[in-house]
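Incident log, support desk, overnight shift.

02:14 A customer reports that sequence design results differ from what the structure should imply. Their input is reproduced verbatim below. On-call engineer (initials T.W.) acknowledged and began investigating.
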């Protein structure tokens, strides 16, 4: 395992180094350079430079729909409920039997995005709990093996392709509370694992060498996501986990894998992991995390956070926010802290993003069965009419 100090120094040079060919990459998914539907306006540029076409599209897209949906939606207590309530792995897994996604309607979602003036959609293919909304040969912890028996990402992808919307795929890389070989809390971040009173038999991580098994899992799933769905891009999270131990998450390898498979796929990781991302995608205030990282993980990690954030200053970036205050996934609206935003508040978010040369990725948390909150849908449609 590479020394952590040396690894952080290596990352500091990543923004100026050449990306080497991936030794494990498969052939490109689009060798004929067939233009994706959402890039049809940029077909001439795409023929010359697919990545340039994607960036030109993204710069003009301005506005996208974000969705946090998973097992946690059933309980309605937040996407981090397994960690905060220390729910045993086996007990949390039983939620698969209740995950029907009966009202998840990709046509409704994509129509709503279009009516709202949005140009792309982003969905949590795998959040921190490790549950996947897509077909994967790497695990049975998926919506395909749950009560739903559906590939929700596949359905959304088909609808996006049909209607000319770009599809970004959110992927939690630096947190996975289900995978047996994901690093333990002792590896450097308190949120790597829930703080269970008793050891979980499902967890088998013992040494940092074991993390290589998780790395192989991520590489395989990224290949699946890119080759099965040909997305507009992969959107990584959580960046604090990355800053805690950047040596455990070989992001440049992951980026090379994605780019070797798809010449037009964009890559993002919140404030940035290496500085070589195509755009930054911070939450809400869109600020550097360096000061917080200094307090949490020390000077070296803080220096990395500062360098990669500064590497994105000249790029057209994105900020993400949510329609329900303080909640990314569905929670009951039982007090003002959880109320849903109104039309003017969304207009203010759009104006703020525009003033900072950023896109706005606006999140709604689908309800337990997968339908969209009625109030959010109404607000989005009204905003769509205002922005034309």
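02:41 Re-run completed on a clean worker. Output:
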């Amino acid at each position: 395992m590479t020394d952590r100090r040396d690894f952080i120094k290596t990352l500091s040079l990543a923004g100026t180094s050449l990306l080497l060919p991936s030794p494990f990459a498969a052939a490109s998914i689009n060798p004929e350079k067939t233009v994706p539907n959402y890039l049809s306006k940029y077909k001439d540029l795409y023929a010359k430079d697919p990545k340039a076409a994607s960036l030109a599209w993204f710069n003009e897209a301005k506005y996208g729909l974000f969705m946090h949906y998973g097992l946690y939606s059933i309980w309605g207590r937040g996407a981090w409920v397994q960690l905060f309530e220390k729910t045993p792995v086996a007990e949390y897994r039983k939620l698969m039997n209740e995950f029907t996604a009966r009202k998840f309607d990709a046509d409704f979602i994509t129509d709503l995005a279009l009516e709202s003036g949005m140009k792309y959609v982003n969905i949590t293919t795998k959040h921190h709990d490790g549950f996947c909304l897509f077909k994967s040969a790497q695990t049975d912890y998926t919506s395909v093996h749950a009560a739903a028996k559906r590939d929700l990402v596949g359905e959304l992808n088909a609808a996006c392709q049909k209607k000319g919307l770009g599809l970004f795929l959110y992927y939690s890389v630096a947190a996975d509370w289900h995978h047996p070989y994901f690093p333990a809390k002792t590896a450097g971040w308190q949120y790597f694992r829930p703080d269970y009173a008793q050891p979980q038999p499902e967890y088998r991580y013992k040494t940092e060498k074991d993390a290589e098994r998780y790395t192989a899992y991520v590489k395989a799933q990224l290949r699946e996501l890119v080759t099965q769905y040909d997305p507009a891009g992969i959107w990584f999270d959580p960046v604090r986990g990355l800053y805690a131990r950047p040596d455990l998450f070989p992001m440049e390898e992951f980026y090379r894998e994605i780019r070797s498979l798809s010449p037009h796929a964009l890559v993002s990781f919140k404030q940035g992991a290496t500085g070589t991302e195509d755009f930054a995608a911070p939450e809400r205030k869109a600020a550097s995390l360096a000061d917080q990282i200094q307090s949490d993980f020390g000077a070296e990690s803080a220096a990395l956070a500062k360098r990669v954030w500064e590497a994105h200053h000249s790029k057209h970036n994105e900020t993400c926010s949510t329609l329900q205050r303080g909640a990314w996934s569905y929670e009951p609206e039982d007090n003002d802290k959880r109320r849903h935003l109104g039309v003017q508040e969304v207009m203010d978010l759009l104006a703020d993003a525009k003033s900072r040369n950023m896109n706005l990725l606006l999140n709604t948390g689908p309800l337990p069965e997968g339908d969209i909150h009625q109030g959010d849908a109404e607000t989005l449609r009204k905003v769509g009419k205002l922005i034309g």
